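Good morning,

Attaching, inline, the backbone tokens for the sequence recovery test we're adding to the shared suite. The designed sequence is right after.
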């Protein structure tokens, strides 16, 4: 253990501040349901945007992205399209505005604005979206839990403390013990203070991470001025052909096995499938997790758009400064690091904690550890808040106790929060590594979510019955694929290539289910259409809306929205790779990136920002 007294003091001070935040906002959070779940819809867009960015700056994802950058270099910027990261651009340009116009509290409550409160499939559609939300929330909590444990294990080796623990722990479960300890801090302040304390905690964490990332960026740049990175040809470019084109033989031979196990060798096919899936996932809108809760917490539809635009601007440059800096130091000092896990295998996800533990100065280690612990807490607490909202708002209040007092609702939030955390921790014990649960969430579970949630925005005939059967077919198919992976019938890195099958099964369920039941009541459709103003296949509803109100103006911004999405995605890629070129001091590439980014920002000022109130 290499932590100094200064580093330990910084970490302890941060942990104590989370407890203080929980107590500080306890009274405000107890005012009413909206204050607890959504911060009373009174928080400004830039605070929510910063909080949302902090939730995405998670420790498990950052460990994964450092390992990707180490192995794939500049080409690693494309792999997070698995989420897809460009869904933030779709949200920024129009989808978050559509969502916020509903004035709902959760995604399940939103369904009533689209399908009504009664009719065929309404209750079942309501329950299936709750099931999906809880599956995804619990999956993300297990993903964050195991990442945190692996991270802490490097700084506090188990053999230093095992003599003080009154029970034996198998090596593979050591990360889980550490995960439980720090999960309790995240649980405390988020359960006690609700959305208010979550946002404040995220802001403090982001400030710490910004200082730490800039500091480590200077250190990495200084090391690179006197050290050459020994990497294969093609590592410095984001461009690729049919094959990945990276051969680590004679440099770090073990990396070739990592590339093979990831399944990214035929990179062009992987990229096309990832983009195909990502486009539809982005069209579907936000999944029912912390991202959706932050959008529903904004003060207006315009602020919802601004919030999502702010997320990319404030997240990507800082996060990728950290990623490329740790990668560069990892490459320079690779032979001096021990990346073996508890079973003796090389684990590239251990690069991040190994570099911090061995090659950074006193003070910076404490800041980074505090910030990364905060990153775990913000992701965990935001996800937990979303799970609480679904269980309390969409099950307890709707079905169990509709007349519940504010006191009872807050008490239920406390109880549900503790239960959700306990289940998330238990699931974490069944996770082998970060990548396995990540692949299941983004390739399987979210694949089953897509078809129904694209149709709900863009096709008038799609109804609650179709939503239920589309979601159910997708989730069951995702579960089947996860079993096929577990028993070796599908290679773990190949789940993405089964997305078309998953999508078609879900799409078939959606369409057949829709035509198996009557169309949604036209009054509900007209209310939704005139309030949200989506574009798509809404002709019968549009005609009735215009007949009832000749002054109504339908949404004609499809081409403009899609143009802005393309421009915004290019700008997002520039924000991602710019800090990488800066730290590596690739002068020509850096200047070209800055120039492209400047042009994209000028265009978006005219085609998006100036028109926010118009559409």
């Amino acid at each position: 253990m290499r932590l100094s007294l200064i580093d330990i003091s910084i970490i302890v001070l941060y942990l104590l501040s989370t407890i203080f935040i929980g107590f500080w906002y306890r009274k405000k959070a107890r005012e009413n349901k909206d204050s607890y779940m959504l911060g009373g819809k009174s928080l400004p867009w830039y605070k929510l945007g910063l909080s949302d960015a902090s939730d995405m700056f998670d420790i498990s994802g950052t460990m994964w992205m450092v390992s990707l950058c180490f192995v794939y270099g500049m080409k690693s910027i494309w792999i997070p399209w698995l989420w897809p990261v460009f869904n933030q651009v779709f949200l920024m340009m129009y989808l978050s505005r559509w969502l916020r116009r509903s004035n709902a509290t959760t995604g399940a409550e939103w369904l009533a604005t689209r399908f009504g409160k009664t009719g065929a499939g309404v209750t079942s559609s309501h329950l299936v979206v709750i099931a999906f939300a809880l599956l995804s929330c619990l999956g993300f909590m297990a993903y964050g839990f195991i990442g945190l444990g692996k991270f802490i294990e490097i700084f506090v080796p188990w053999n230093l403390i095992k003599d003080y623990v009154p029970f034996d722990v198998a090596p593979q479960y050591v990360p889980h013990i550490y995960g439980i300890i720090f999960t309790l801090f995240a649980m405390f302040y988020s359960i006690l203070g609700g959305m208010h304390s979550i946002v404040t905690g995220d802001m403090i964490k982001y400030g710490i991470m910004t200082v730490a990332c800039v500091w480590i960026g200077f250190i990495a740049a200084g090391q690179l001025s006197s050290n050459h990175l020994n990497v294969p040809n093609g590592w410095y470019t984001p461009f690729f052909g049919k094959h990945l084109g990276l051969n680590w033989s004679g440099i770090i031979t073990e990396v070739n096995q990592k590339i093979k196990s990831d399944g990214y060798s035929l990179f062009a096919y992987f990229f096309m499938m990832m983009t195909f899936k990502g486009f539809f996932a982005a069209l579907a809108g936000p999944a029912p997790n912390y991202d959706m809760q932050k959008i529903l917490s904004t003060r207006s539809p315009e602020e919802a758009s601004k919030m999502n635009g702010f997320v990319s601007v404030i997240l990507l440059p800082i996060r990728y400064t950290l990623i490329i800096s740790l990668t560069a130091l990892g490459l320079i000092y690779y032979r001096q690091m021990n990346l073996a896990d508890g079973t003796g295998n090389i684990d590239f996800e251990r690069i991040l904690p190994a570099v911090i533990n061995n090659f950074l100065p006193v003070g910076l280690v404490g800041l980074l550890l505090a910030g990364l612990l905060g990153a775990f807490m913000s992701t965990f607490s935001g996800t937990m808040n979303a799970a609480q909202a679904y269980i309390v708002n969409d099950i307890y209040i709707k079905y169990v106790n509709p007349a519940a007092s504010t006191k009872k609702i807050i008490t239920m939030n406390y109880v549900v929060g503790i239960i959700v955390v306990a289940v998330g921790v238990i699931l974490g014990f069944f996770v082998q590594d970060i990548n396995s649960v990540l692949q299941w969430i983004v390739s399987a579970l979210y694949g089953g979510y897509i078809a129904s949630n694209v149709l709900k925005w863009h096709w008038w005939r799609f109804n609650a019955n179709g939503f239920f059967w589309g979601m159910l077919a997708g989730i069951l198919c995702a579960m089947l694929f996860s079993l096929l992976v577990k028993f070796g019938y599908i290679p773990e890195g190949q789940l993405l290539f089964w997305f078309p099958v998953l999508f078609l099964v879900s799409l078939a369920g959606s369409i057949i289910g829709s035509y198996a039941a009557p169309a949604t009541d036209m009054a509900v459709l007209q209310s939704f259409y005139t309030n949200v103003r989506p574009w798509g296949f809404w002709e019968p509803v549009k005609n009735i809306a215009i007949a009832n109100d000749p002054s109504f103006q339908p949404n004609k911004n499809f081409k403009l929205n899609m143009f802005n999405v393309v421009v915004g995605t290019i700008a997002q890629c520039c924000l991602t790779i710019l800090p990488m070129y800066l730290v590596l001091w690739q002068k020509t590439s850096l200047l070209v990136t800055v120039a492209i980014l400047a042009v994209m920002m000028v265009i978006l000022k005219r085609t998006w920002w100036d028109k926010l109130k118009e559409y």
